[in-house]
Predict the 3D structure of the following.
Amino acid sequence: MEIIYIAILFFAFLSGESKNLKFSTFSLIPHSLLIATSVFLLGYYQKIPSLYLIAGVDFLVRAILMPVLLIIILKQRLERETKPLITHALSIALSVVLLSVIFNLVETLKIQKLPDVLSSFSCGFTLAIYGLFLLISKRDMVKMIIAFFIIENGIHFLIIALIPHLPKGIELALTFNFVVALFLFIYVTLRLNEILVFEEIRKFRESNIFYKSKE
């Protein structure tokens, strides 16, 4: 399972650090597919059948619906990321440090202090911290949406890790809550896209008026 978690973090890194927004969006597909796969395997190995349902929801919403919506948004925008608050090289370096150090540190602490927690805990915690880093360091709205998505995936994993300690049946309630949260997230994404497109059209018109007045 650890190889799957490392692959999840790797594709999160590609999605967060690629300058090409389309490549960032496509990187979310294997990232989300691996999340759905890991949830399914956790259900199989831990004998928790309700995790199969969560894995199915993850596949439909995270691996298919969200990337498709982001691709639709990118059709109306430039594909290159707006310059972030820090240099690209520094962002890559910090990302590598965050992903590797935090994952290994939390994995060590989990083994010592939380041995009964599922193995997804370390990956979930690392994703949440990395998504927060992206949210702070990026200025492009699409990248900020991707950051929110990575944070949500991390929280999702953290809660799944605690399932053995939760009352029976709570996974189904959590699944419903995640579906509602993701659809709200999708709605906000579409509304932000409308605002972004409108703003870019306004700036384009203002620049044309400015140049015409100079002539």
Summary: The chain has a mean pLDDT of 78. Residues 170-214 form the longest helix (45 residues). The two ends are 64 Å apart (CA to CA). The chain has one domain: 2-214.
